[in-house]
Amino acid sequence: MLYDFSNIKTKPNFHFIFDRLHRGNIGILAGIGAVGKSYFILEQIINYILFKKGHLPNSSSINMNFNKVKIITTEDEVNIITNRIQNILIVLFKTNDINKIKDIDKIIDLLQKSIILVISENLHETKKEVEKNDGEEFLILDTLSVILKLKSEIDNAEISSKIETFKEIAIKNSISILFIHHLNQSAMSIKSKDEITADKLRGATTLLNNVRYVSLLVKIKESIFYKSVKVNNGKRTEIEFENDFWNLGFSEKKTRIPF
What we know:
nine-stranded mixed β-sheet; Rossmann fold; two-stranded antiparallel sheet; alpha/beta
């Protein structure tokens, strides 16, 4: 059968949700402590939502495709999250006064409808929250070890069992699940992009057998870098996407991420 090239003109059917994390898959966004993982993913989400609805002229640098996202976090300090969102809006709209942002009330209403924020430290409650699905296509769990209540990050049986539950939910609900996680101590001494590999994950030996995709957020000198890594199923080998390693332009001197 000849291929019908007229199909090219039809709207593409994107299956990815965040970068190359597809529906039904589990991924990890990892970085060293205080590098700004939670802030980074929240900024990317807000950037995408506001661009999609015409409130921003430029889109996020990372590919996204969703209407609603749910973030389950253990950070019980609501003020931390509120301040984080305020800071992101101030940076995105290049202002020192959030009340001077055009249509700020509409923006806040849009974020309220697009982002479901759940605070939970109970694994049973977290599973129930994940299973019920409130219309989200993208689910973020912050952080992996706390959310899963891991006794050990090198216990393959424990991690496999707990992550498998979330894999089943991701497939059943056709959503993407992203765990926020930490890099190991050796990542503290990274000096070049060549040293950034998925095996720098804390508990990498086990985790790389249980997830499909890894995003790495790493500090080198004064700059913050992002790198995409696809993990082969059942193997601890990785495929690094060429040209996907880029400097986010964040630094301790001129920063968008609060260190």
